[in-house]
Design brief:
This protein is an alpha+beta fold. Helices cover about 70% and strands about 10% of the residues. Helix 4 packs parallel to helix 16 and helix 5 packs across helix 11. The protein starts with a strand and ends with a strand.
């Protein structure tokens, strides 16, 4: 047993994300709207318990239970459900459990299949099913009621309802084990039947083999007689071979006499050939020297012509550079002229400012005079006040003060208005100044930008000029390499041509065997002499003269063979192994006597000693031809390498020329761009100067207006101060009233007015002079800065003109030097051409001499070849006869060996024995006829199994082994039948006891739910409890006892609930799942259902999971999980524990 602790779901149906569900004690409810995925939770539990039917999981196939994706979330490739079990007691087949905690996991991969694990160890699906069935649960047990299937138990056939009793009796796991044992029993019975068939078959085979063994014995007796007469027949054949050997030896002796005559003729032709070849070689060496000089002269002419082309290109390039320098120089001179005018203008303006220094002194004098006038006005005002106080009466004085007060107030208002006007003007000036400064900044930014661009373009021109120089140097280097490689190419071609003329028509193909040999240095003469007529042969099967691979049995190599001095194809190994190398010519004759047929000796000088007594010296007539041909092959490889290199160099030269042209175009484009930037920069300078003057004037006006505003504020402060004084004087006049002379007061007032007027004039003069001085100072500062910048640009432009002049002068000088070179080069070309023509004539004469000698040599060599051919034919004839002789000797040895093998006697001994023995068959034809009869008798026996006796013994052993295996299977069958009977007996007893208890509990629960009535269970259709069906009879109050199928839907549901809960009272399952079982019930019956559910919760350890939409059911549960679908197609779980009152989202 165990308790269920936790459920984890990931990727199962609508649960896209990992979700965890705690299954605690009591009743756990799962609620939510239709289609949100509530039933998917219970199906996940059934699936992890081992459910294998996709139909029962509401899916077309098992892959359909994997999350299939939504519009926003892609489909998953696996589904995984884990159920955590605690307090486990028991065991699992073939799986050791040492922990009370079990974690059962099932993983399904799309397109692969599902896998079970317990505690992270792989197990079988059967092990998981058995684990849950033993506890009374399982994917199809009565403790799990799917949606709409509550009354399915009622609609089951009686035989199908038996599962209820099996759950109650706790024998579901026992039934599974019985089923497994029955399958094993069937398998064992099938194996036993197959074993019986195999055993009977082997016994029949043994009888057949006994007959074959008797036939094999007769076959062996006939074979012995055949062997004896065959040895007699071989002896007759041996006598014929010995006779043929004697005839062949006589023929070979006659042929060797003729061969000696051919050898003498051949030696005379060779001497004449050597003399002619030496003469040709001398002429060819002379011709090579002429060809070499001719090639060098031709290269010299080509080199001088290339120099002419380079000078022509250089002059074009210098002309292009001079044009660019002239354009740059003109641009700089234009700029220099503008700068000179700007400097002269600025200096004139500055000289004018020096005449205006006296204005500052005049400004100081005016300021002093203004101060003196203000002091006099102040004194008179004091006198005037005193006079008024003394001379005027209080009433008159008061009127004057009132009038002055009114004038001051009026003036104050006028000052305020003027101040506002000036402030508005100041704002407008500041706005214009900001706009002008912004435009000036933009102009300066544009100026700096153009200056930067000019510097950038200059750098690019310098960089490209440097690259152009490097590219020209690289091009020059490539041209030199091409020239050198072309020279080498021509030299090799000339050498190949000379060698071809030397070899004449003797042209070895690339496939010739000579090209496949790797000879140790110093042994070339020995190899060429040994293989002088075979070196032009190939390994190609289509060739007229070729080597083929041949394995010669019993061919022993000679002492110190040529295979030690040359690496050659396997086809040459037989011949090379029969040619020995000797260091000392003195030992040759003694060693020649011991040579076997086909063997020969050679030394480093190319001398040959053959097995048949033939001796040949000076065999190197073809060496020079072969060496020349090998040299030609080597030179042709070099030509290919040089050709590839030349092709690569020409490509590089082409790329370099393209890069040079590209860089020249780029430099020209940059020069045009530079001129454009200079023009734009020149157009900016006057505008910039205008804006600077405008900004200086605006700043002066702003400063002037600020001073005016300041003066107005000062005047207003004075007016306010004066108004306060008037107020005090009025107060004083009210107390002291005196009469003063009117004339004196008028005179003082008049003087004050005159002084005020003078003061005002002086102030206006000062302000005007100040404005002029400030404007002139600002203009002077700007002119000084502008003059410095212009002088700096002037010096820089001057330096650039000097630099361009130097470059122009260097190019003119270089161009002048180049003017005289083409004529000097042309004189050299004409001289070289004369030498070339002279050498060509000499080469033609030399070739004619070589051709004449070559024709004579060809005639001599043709005679030599004919002589050699006759000699070789004679040798081949001798070799053929010797080879045939060797074959007959080998055949004689073979027959001698065969005779000895069959009779253990030599042929001579058999000859003597046959003289004394009277054979039934003496004649060759009689023996052959008798052998044919014996062979016919043996053939008439048909196929004979000579291993019949051995096979018979092997078969006997196999029969004994199968009989032992049969005994073991019969014993295993007996044990399985006993185990099944034991399971059946135990199951029957448990089932009957469970039936009585379930029946009693069912009757009690039925009465509780229906408030009366009767119900009972009966076993039907079989006397065997394990094969019986279960029938349910129920009578609700007021009705007759009848079959349950006649009840209403609600009555069926209550009856089914009574039956399911009656099982839990006997054998409570660790978990009970009820999916909307209360749907068919009314509120009264739901309350009854909840009461019984609560009783079961309190009396058992079963954990209940219930899906419901009914509010009454919801009130009776301990905690609720809400299934939501916030995103369409994706389920999530939210839990509410009524005991803790805590809302949390499931992990």
């Amino acid at each position: 047993m165990f308790t269920v602790k936790k459920l984890k779901i990931s990727g199962f149906k609508s649960f896209a994300h990992p979700t965890e569900l705690l299954i605690e004690d009591g009743v756990t409810g799962i609620i939510g709207p239709n289609g949100c995925g509530k039933s998917n939770v219970f199906e996940a539990i059934r699936w992890v318990m081992g459910e294998s039917s996709s139909k029962s999981l509401r899916s077309g196939s098992l892959d359909d239970i994997i999350f299939n994706g939504t519009q926003n979330i892609p489909a998953k490739n696996f589904a995984e459900v884990t159920i955590e079990l605690d307090d486990f007691t028991g065991s699992i087949n073939n799986f050791p459990i040492n922990d009370k905690k079990l974690i059962v996991n099932r993983l399904l991969e799309r397109g692969v299949g599902s896998f079970f694990k317990i505690n992270n160890k792989d197990v079988r699906a059967r092990d998981v099913s058995t684990l849950f069935y033993d506890s009374g649960s399982g994917p199809r047990s009565s403790s799990i009621i799917s949606q709409g299937n509550i009354d399915q138990i009622i609609n089951f056939k009686p035989i199908d309802r038996k599962i209820i009793l099996e759950d109650a009796a706790g024998i579901s796991g026992l039934q599974a084990r019985r089923h497994e044992s029955e399958l094993k029993l069937q398998s064992t019975e099938v194996n036993l039947e197959k074993l019986d068939i195999n055993l009977n078959s082997l016994i029949e085979q043994k009888k057949s083999l006994s007959r074959q063994a008797r036939q094999a014995e007769r076959y062996e007796n006939i074979s012995k007689n055949i062997k004896f007469y065959q040895s007699i027949l071989i002896f007759s054949e041996w006598k014929e071979i010995v006779k043929s050997l004697n005839t062949s030896n006589e023929s070979i002796f006659d042929l060797k006499k003729k061969l000696k005559i051919f050898v003498e003729e051949s030696d005379e032709q060779k001497k004449r050939s050597r003399l002619l070849k030496n003469e040709i070689l001398n002429h060819q060496e002379e011709g090579n020297l002429i060809s070499k000089n001719l090639y060098e002269t031709e290269n010299k002419i080509n080199s001088l012509k290339n120099k002419q082309d380079l000078i022509k290109n250089k002059k074009i390039e210098i002309k292009r550079f001079l044009e660019t320098i002239t354009n740059d120089k003109n641009n700089e001179l234009k700029k220099l002229d503008i700068l000179q005018k700007t400097i002269a203008s600025s200096e004139i303006k500055l000289s004018n400012y020096s005449n205006k220094i006296n204005q500052k002194a005049k400004l100081n004098e005016l300021s002093i005079e203004e101060t003196d006038l203000k002091r006099q006005v102040k004194q008179l005002e004091g006198m005037f006040v005193n006079e008024i106080q003394l001379s005027l009466g209080d009433e008159f004085k008061s009127d004057n003060l009132k009038e002055e007060k009114e004038n001051l107030n009026k003036k104050n208002i006028e000052n305020i208005k003027e101040n506002e006007k000036i402030e508005n003007l100041l704002k407008s000036l500041k706005k214009n100044l900001t706009s002008d400064e912004k435009e000036l900044d933009e102009l300066q930014f544009g100026k700096k930008n153009y200056e930067k661009k000019i510097e950038s373009v200059k750098k690019e021109i310098q960089l490209n000029s440097k690259k152009l120089q490097e590219n020209r140097e690289l091009l020059n280097k490539i041209d030199i390499e091409i020239e050198n490689e072309t020279k080498r190419f021509t030299e090799i071609k000339t050498e190949i041509k000379t060698l071809n003329e030397l070899t004449g028509k003797a042209n070895l193909s690339k496939d010739s065997i000579v090209n496949l040999l790797k000879i140790k240095p110093g042994y070339e003469n020995a190899i060429y002499a040994a293989l002088t007529n075979e070196l032009d042969a190939t390994l190609n099967n289509n060739s007229h003269k070729r080597w083929i691979k041949k394995n010669i049995v019993g061919l022993e190599p000679i002492k110190n063979p040529l295979t030690q001095y040359v690496t050659a194809p396997n086809e040459l190994h037989p011949v090379l192994s029969q040619i020995g190398f000797i260091n000392n010519e003195k030992d040759a004759l003694s060693l020649q006597k011991n040579l076997r047929i086909g063997q020969m000796l050679v030394d480093k000088n190319g001398n040959v000693w053959r097995w048949d007594g033939f001796i040949s010296k000076d065999n190197l007539q073809n060496k020079k031809i072969i060496d020349s041909q090998l040299k030609i092959n080597e030179l042709q490889k070099q030509i290919k390498i040089i050709d590839l290199k030349l092709s690569k160099l020409k490509k590089e030269s082409k790329v370099s020329i393209e890069n040079t042209q590209k860089l020249e175009r780029s430099i020209k484009s940059y020069n045009m761009e530079l001129e454009s930037f200079y023009k734009k920069l020149d157009s900016i300078l006057p505008t910039e100067s205008s804006f600077r003057e405008k900004i200086s004037l605006s700043r002066y006006n702003i400063q002037k207006n600020k001073e005016i505003i300041k003066n107005y504020k000062t005047q207003n402060n004075k007016i306010l101060f004066r108004l306060k004084e008037i107020q005090k004087t009025e107060d004083t006049l009210n107390k002291n009233f005196t009469n003063k002379s009117t004339n004196e007061r008028e005179n003082i007032e008049k003087k004050i007015h005159e002084l005020d007027k003078k003061t005002e004039d002086k102030r206006n003069q000062i302000n005007s002079l100040k404005e002029e001085v400030m404007r002139e100072e600002l203009n002077k500062t700007y002119l000084v800065n502008d003059l410095k910048k212009s002088k700096s640009d002037f010096l820089e432009s001057k330096k650039r003109i000097e630099l361009l002049g130097k470059r122009e002068e260097s190019y003119f000088l270089e161009n002048k030097n180049l003017d005289t070179l083409p004529d000097e080069i042309q004189i050299k070309i004409n001289h070289a051409q004369g030498i070339y023509n002279s050498l060509s004539e000499k080469l033609t004469i030399n070739k004619d001499s070589v051709n004449e000698k070559s024709l004579e040599l060809q005639s001599v060599e043709q005679k030599l070849v004919k002589s050699e051919s006759l000699r070789e034919n004679q040798r081949n004839e001798i070799t053929k006869l010797e080879s045939a002789l060797d074959g007959m000797k080998s055949k004689e040895k073979e027959l001698r060996s065969l005779i000895y093998e069959r009779s253990s006697k030599q042929p001579e001994e058999i000859k003597e024995d046959l003289k004394d023995k009277d054979l039934k068959y003496k004649n060759y034809d009689d023996i052959k006829e008798h052998l044919e009869k014996l062979s016919f008798q043996r053939e008439q026996m048909g196929p004979v199994n000579l291993r019949a006796k051995i096979e018979e013994n092997d078969l006997k052993n196999s029969i004994e082994e199968l009989e032992v295996e049969k005994f073991d299977l019969e014993e295993a069958l007996q044990k399985l039948r006993l185990a099944i009977n034991k399971i059946n007996h135990e199951g029957k007893n448990l089932l009957l006891v469970a039936f009585e208890k379930v029946n009693k509990n069912f009757q009690d629960l039925f009465k509780k739910l229906f408030n009366g009535g009767e119900a009972k269970l009966e076993l039907v259709k079989s006397d065997d409890p394990l094969q019986t069906g279960l029938e349910i009879y129920a009578r609700p109050p007021g009705k007759k006892l009848s079959s349950i199928t006649l009840l209403s839907g609600g009555e069926k549901t209550l009856t089914a609930i009574s039956l399911i809960f009656s099982i839990f009272l006997i054998n409570p399952s660790p978990i009970c799942i009820l999916d909307e079982v209360d749907a068919p019930l009314d509120d009264v019956n739901i309350e009854k259902f909840c009461i019984i559910l609560n009783e079961l919760k309190n009396n058992t350890k079963t954990k209940f999971l219930i899906i419901t939409h009914n509010k009454i059911t919801m009130t009776s549960i301990d905690r609720v999980y809400g299934v939501t679908m916030a995103q369409k197609g994706i389920s999530d779980i939210v839990s509410v524990d009524f005991e803790k009152i805590d809302l949390q989202k499931a992990v």
